[in-house]
Amino acid sequence: MADQRPIGYWLRLVDGLIDEQFARTLDEHGVTRMQWQLLNVLARGQASVEMLDAAVAPFLVAGGETTLDHLTELIDSAWVDATPTGYELTERGHGALDRLTNVVAEQRTVMSAGVAEGDYLTTVNTLEQMALNLGWRDDA
Fold first, then answer.
1. Distance (Å, whole) CA 22 – CA 19
2. Using CB atoms within 10 A of its CB, is residue 28 exposed (0-12), middle (13-18) or buried (19+)?
């Protein structure tokens, strides 16, 4: 195990590869990864900008980027409505999310090919525990 690369190497590499693949895949369907994340959050119900920012915080670029920077195109596409109390998916947005969910599911299948389901779940659970050990809290 002395020659094995550390977990940080693999985390950064896989994270970058996931970002690249999802960006290409979603771009083919006219959305960004951040817009995909926002659609998923809004599928759970109406949300304010603050709620959206908190839910997608790991995906925001440091330095003041907010979800507002990504909502305009979703509103222009009639996938999201702005209401006096926040934002919500439209019927058209729900349909788009359903189609995108199938595309992303295919991508996840490709990504996890050759990995046993139990191994995948163990990996996710292990990473979650490591994040908790390092001070992360799931407040979303």
1. 5
2. exposed
- Threshold 0.85, pTM exceeds: no
- For the chain, the distance separating the N- and C-terminal CA atoms, rounded to the nearest angstrom, is 37
Distance CA 43, CA 45 (A): 5
User: Domain-by-domain residue ranges, the chain?
Assistant: 7-114
**What are the tens digits of pLDDT across the range 94-128?**
999 999 999 999 999 999 999 999 999 999 999 99
- Per CATH, the number for 7-114 is 1.10.10.10
Measured at the alpha carbon of residue 105, what is the angle toward residues 126 and 71, in degrees to the nearest 5?
95
Cα(131)–Cα(133) distance, rounded to whole angstroms?
A: 5
Q: Which two tokens stand for residue 41?
A: 């959050």
DSSP-H helix ranges across 1-139: 7-27, 33-43, 49-55, 68-76, 91-111, 117-133
Nearest to 56 by CA among 74, 76, 71, 73: 71
At 89, give phi and psi (nearest 5°): -70, 140
- For 68, the token pair is 């507002």
Q: Which tokens in the block code for residue 53?
A: 């920012």
